[in-house]
Fold each of these.
Amino acid sequence: MKNRLKVLRAERDWTQADLALHLKVSRQTINAIEKGKFDPSLPLAFKAARLFEMPIEDIFQDEAMV
Amino acid sequence: MEKLEESAAKCGLVARDVKNATVANIWTLAWAISLGVISYLSDYGWYTSIWVAMVGFGIHAVIGVGMVLAFKKFLTEADELERKIQLDALALSVGVTIVFFSSYSVLEKAISIPGLSTAYLIVVLALAYSVGIIFGRRRYR
């Protein structure tokens, strides 16, 4: 699954640690998601969508659909 | 608590996970110590009656239940990547232990080798679990 977390984070000038703090997960989790090594759970994806105030599909895209 | 949260965040960890893991580790240490003490007392004939043995067994069992509950709490509340790493490591340790013991028992019937003791079970589980954790951490680094 592809995602735009890194771009959205950079737009806000946030570090991985900052985003991790906002989403209440570890920095390693953010790093693994950004690198596409780990797919977040649905609750975490919704939390990210709420944080960035955008639809979930604008942040996470199914690679088969891209 | 805030200091723990800050230092955990600096290391990229969630303070709640650090706290829960510490509690689980303390329970595990207590369980290991109780196992050692109870085995030692048994070896040196301290169990003069069935009641003394029952008290020893009871203490060890209660600490064991505490350890399991503490680890369950840690897993339930853990950061989702940490939970995946832990569950993968647990799956590996269970799988390796089953394969190791079943293979050894087949070998035991075929050729003359010493029987396996329960201590080996704990060692194999712990080793496979540790390897699983190391590989998991490397994979998601």
Note: Helices of chain A lie at 5-11, 16-23, 27-34, 42-52, 56-59.
Amino acid sequence: MRTYGAPEANGDEGIALVAFFVGPTLIVAGWAYATDLLQVVLVLAGIAVLAASVYYMIRSRSVGDGS
Amino acid sequence: MKSLLRKFQGLTGARTMLLLVVVPIAIIFITGCANSPAAHSNGDPSGTGTGTRSDTIGATQGGPQVTTDSSGKVTGDDLQKNKDKEPLAYLLADVVGQNRISANLVWTLVTGFLVMFMQAGFALVETGFTRLKNAGHTMMMNFMVYGLGMLGYFIAGFAFQFGGVGAVASLGGTAPLTGAGGEWVINLFGKPFGLLGTNGFFLAGGTYDVAVAVLFLFQMVFMDTAATIPTGAMAERWKWSGFAVFALFCSTLTYPVFGNWAWGGGWLSQLGANFGLGHGYVDFAGSGVVHAVGGWMGLAGAMVLGPRIGKYNKDGSVNATPGHNLTLAALGTFILAFGWFGFNPGSTLGASGAGLNRIGIIAVDTMLAGAAASFSAMAYTWIRWGKPDPGMMINGLLAGLVAITAPSGFVSPVNSVIIGLIAGVLVIGAVWTFDHIFKVDDPVGAISVHGVCGTWGVLSVGLFADGTANYGGGWNGVTGSVHGLFYGDPGQLVAQLIGAVTCFVYVWGLSYIFFRIVDRVLGMRVTPAVELAGVDIPEMGMIPYPEDWGAPEETPVPPMAPAYP
């Protein structure tokens, strides 16, 4: 979807940002309040989401600006 | 083929960035949380148990006291001693204690609301000082740093900053934050160095508590003040996505860590107790913790972004880029000055007992320093350039307010005027130096106002603190009042110097690395075409003043069209 007058806008940036919030949230939740297997799962999931956020940042850059 | 190549490049970059960004961040989060007790159960979400008779002890000089011996063992307790003789007074002491804490909670909340309103001031000042074609983008950065920063602070920032703080007596002790092992400590030179708090993530578990919530609200708006400062220094060329990522990083890590060292019981605050340097690093309301942190983050960001197109000529001479609306900037400054009455007097975290009546002097100091700085800025520009410069008068007032923020709790009205007069001239010199010598383009003067004058405020505590303030008999675990160099304690100035240098090295260094990484991964700066056209349409898909818009030919602007067809 193209927005008026905003040729560089793309949803990947939005995905990246959401993931950048969700990743740390999962990690903190796991380490601060979960125990046993749930703790491991939450922290690993958080790290994975954080990694995904970085991937989407890179992807959004290649779609977006040329700076 | 091109698309495949892009994908490949993206994946390769992702692996690299996994090592450079994700792993360090994950380690920091994990380390910070590792010592956290799973969940405290001593919170008071109903508020019925916050404020008891124990909060009357030591609140006033003639009131009930508890005496202890050198080992801390209680040797006398007025309330217990007279319990049988005056049972009604004993019971009423509970009511008095709760009323005292209630007054302090209300005071802290109301002043926190004033500080929150400062966001409006920042938004107007920065927008007024930027050009029309970037007004919407600048306004919305100030708007959204509130929401983005708040979430980051809620997730982890507050816990990192205050998750191991000593008892905040004026709020009833904030017991859920002070649990054992709350502060992550390492030992250096045989002394404990507190680095990071670990209680209070998501305000959950035991920190689901009325007093902790009040402290959170007040400190959250402080963090937001720091986070919104770089949006001015980096205005008119910062990509929105880069800004959004910064807001989370700053509120989660950059700000809270230094805040912990200074206010959360961390190592800077203990320089007095551990090394005999005055009362340790003393920063009453945040010239350093809030303003210098914001200013140095802005400096790092402005350096990574580089100057705006057209700011400098090939020979290095500077072109003026006046903002589009002086009215907005002046109105915003007044709003900020109003909010500062929450910022400084509110930093007592209470108004009842234990020397907290000093809020009157703190408020007057705040007024005087701002007024003195706007005067000295006006006089300086008038004498030097023949006219009183409106932009500098505005920045002068802000510089005075920033400078008095750290010392406001410890200095006299006369000294606050001196601090303000110096700040008003200092900000002009700093703006000129960053512009002409360092070639750092700061559209609104945020680095000079907050970074430089914030540092001046920190140092001025070490010079002008006069020893008359007495907040419960001590500060940072050192008994007695805070004295600066001019009042007999050179050690205090040394502590302030260590704090100021630490602030610059840590905040600027971490921010510079972060912005460099973001620049590589996501991109920090808009394209030259976007910058020339103005970032409002390309970045936001919206303009703030449709009637006044002179659209460049290459940027189609549908008048009043919906942004999302």
Note: Confidence is low (pLDDT under 50) at residues 1-6, 63-67 of chain A.
